[in-house]
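Complex record, two chains
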Amino acid sequence: MAERLDPRTAAAAVRAAGAIPARCVDQAAVNRLLAPSGRQLVSCTSRGERHLTVRWNDETAPVIDQDKVVAPIATRAFALTFAAVLGCCWTQPDDDPYPGEPVGVDEAIAAASGQVSYTWAKGALDHSLSAAGLVELDSDTVRLGHAVAAFTTGQISALRRLYDQLPRPAGSTAEDT
Amino acid sequence: MEYHDTTSSQFSSRLRALLAPVASNRGAAIDDPQLLDIAAQVVAAFVRGDTTGGLSRAQITGRIGSQVPAEQLETRLNLFVEMGMLKTFHGRRHEQRYRLSSISVVGMLVYQRLQQRGGIDELRTLLDRARRLLQDTDHIDHDTVAAEIVKLTGLLNVFADELELLTDSAPLGELIAERRMHDHSDLISDVQELNQLVTEHAPELDRAAVALIGAAQGYLAAVQRMVERIFEDGGETRDFSVLNPEDYYQAAKTVTVAELAAVFDRFVFDAASLHIDPAQLADDLSSSRPVTTRKLRPPEPPAPTDTTDPLTLAEQRRARATERRIRRAEQLLEGADETDLTGWMTSAGWRGTAEAIADLAALDTDTDQPYLVETGAALLVDHDAEPTYRAPTVLQAQRPPVHDQSRNIPVERAAQEAADG
C-alpha cells in the first residue's frame, strides 16, 4: 500500500483493516468522508511506522448493549489479560493510555497471572487481542494496539477510574507511576 | 382472515374496481381493509358454533370478542342487516335473531381471493373450464369454447396492460406486493395444453388458440419486466424484501460462492473488534482480587519559575481584561460622555448584548474606572428581535475635565470666555 489511495478507498480500507499507513492517506479528505457518520482519523504507530485508525466521536459512539449484541464482547479471561497489558503499558494516568510504553510479554503475562492462567493469557495475547488490534506483539514485547488509540474519551475516562485496580507486575504498584 | 398481501391502498382500489359494475355511487366500497376483517369475523361467528335458531346481536358480539370496538361493530351490523347480509331468522321484520346470507359468504370468499391472489385465479378457472369443454370429445360446444378462449385472451391482455403500467409507474413496495400475485410458472404450459386440445378436437378454433398463446406470452413478458424492475430497484436500494425468504434459502444452496459474494462487492466491513466494557472489567477485577483502597495523588503541578509568579500573572490578566472592557465602552460611546444602548442591543443580538453588558457591569463596579451603566425599570418586549426582552440602558463616562495648558482652567470655561469676547 505504498501509493496514496483515493479518499473513498482509503476510508473503506482504514475501516476494514483497522489501521493503515498514514503515507497512503489524504487525512483531511478521508476525515471529510467520515465526519457525517461521527468518526475521524487518529494517529497511531504500528511496526514503527505512523498509521491512521478510525475513532468514533463521543457523541456518536455506538452503545454496546449486552442484550442486543452488535460487537463481540471480550470474555472475562480476554478482558483481564488486556487489563494486565494496559496496567503494564499505561504508565502515566494523566495521559491517554495510548501509546504507553512497550513491556515484555513475560512481564504482561506475569501481571495477568493473578487473574488468568498462563495458557489463557498467552492465547489471548497471540490471538484475540492481537486480531482485535488491542495489543501489538513484537518478538518478545507487547504494546497497546491501534484499537486503544481509537478509544473514545468516554472509554478512557472509565478506564482511568480503574487505573489503580489494573493488574501490574509483582513489585510494581500504581503509586510507583 | 388477515389481509397483508397487498397494501391498503391497492386493496381499496381493487375493491372499488370490483364493485364498479354494481355500484350506485363512487363511495360504495370501503376504504379500510379492517372493515372487511369485521365482516370476516361476523362470518366466522356464524361458522364457529351452533347457530340453531339464529344468533342474536349479543351472541354475534360475544363470539367476536373485544377484537373490534363495540361502536364500530354495531355500525357495521346495522349496515349488514340493512343490506341483507344478515337476515332475520324467519324473515319477520322485528325478530331479534339473525342468519347469515349464503351469497354474502360466497362474496367474502371472492373478496378474500381478490385480496390474496389479485383476481388471477379467475383466469385459471376459465382455462380449466375451456379444457374440460374440449376434453368432453362427444359433445364439444364449439361456440362456447370459442367464447371462453376469446374471454381468456382478452383477460390476459387486460392483465398484461395493467402490469405494464404498474411497472412503469408504481413504487417498489407496490410492485413487490403485486408480484406475489403473478407467480404462474405453469401458465404457459396450461395454455399450450389447451392449444393442443384445440388442434386435436376443434381445429377451426386454431386461430383463436394461437391468439391466446400470444396473449399468454405477452402477459408473462409483462410479469418478467415487472420482476426485472423489482430486482433492479431493489438491488440499488439493498431492499432484502424483494425476494421471499425461500428464494434466499434456495440461492444459498444452489448458486456459486462467487455469485453470493458479488452481493457484498460494494459493502465495507469494519475490522474485527473486541469490545472492552469498563463496567464489566471493574466487576471482573474486583471479583478476582480484593479491591485496593490506595488513592492516587493528583499530579504535581510544574514548579513555578522566577518569571511565572502566579500573582503577577493574575494581575496581568486582570489589567488586560480591564483594557479590553474600556476599549469596548469607548467604542460604544464613540467619544461622547453618554450613550443610549437600548436600540444598539437589537443590532448586537443576544450574545453581543450579553457580553457587552457583562463587560460594562464589570467596569461599573470598578471604582478606578469612570464608567456607569444605568438600567431603567421599564421592560421592552419585541418577540421578533434578539434579545426579546430589553430594559432601557444608558452608558455614561464621567470624564475628568481637560485643562487649558496655557491658563490652567478647564477647556469648557476657556471656550465660553472666548465666545463672550
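Note: Strands of chain B lie at 55-56, 86-88, 97-100, 338-340, 371-375, 380-381, 389-390, 393-397, 403-404, 409-410.
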